Backbone:
């Protein structure tokens, strides 16, 4: 289940990849994404995530979990996706990722009533490593 929390501000230096306390898994890398998510579209974003990325990620080897946050100051969603290894994460084919992204955008357009494009465009993509 996705978790939405309000952030006052999150910097890359404040997040560490460590062991997952719930599952006891060692996190090797955290995929860090930020999306533009307008205040009035938060629920639509979450519905699109639940119908696309969430079920797909759960089937991926090396996927340990993810956390979703929303920052009211910037109206951005932050996704922190934990992987057991960089190799597991990066071995996923771009064709697969593009298929899931298309599903996400279709659901997002249906949810928001937007006719074309991605209602929640990517504004940042990076990774966080253990210290």
Residues:
């Amino acid at each position: 289940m996705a978790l939405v929390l309000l952030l006052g501000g999150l910097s890359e230096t404040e997040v560490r990849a460590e062991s997952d306390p719930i599952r006891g898994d060692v996190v090797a890398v955290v995929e860090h994404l930020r999306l533009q998510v307008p205040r009035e579209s938060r629920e639509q974003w979450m519905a699109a995530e639940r119908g696309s990325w969430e079920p797909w990620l759960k089937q991926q080897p090396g996927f340990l979990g993810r956390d979703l946050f929303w920052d009211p100051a910037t109206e951005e969603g932050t996704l922190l996706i934990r992987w057991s290894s960089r190799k597991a994460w990066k071995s996923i084919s771009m064709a697969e990722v593009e298929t899931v992204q298309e599903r996400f955008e279709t659901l997002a357009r249906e949810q928001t009533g937007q006719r074309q494009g991605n209602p929640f465009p990517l504004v940042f993509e990076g990774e966080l490593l253990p210290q």
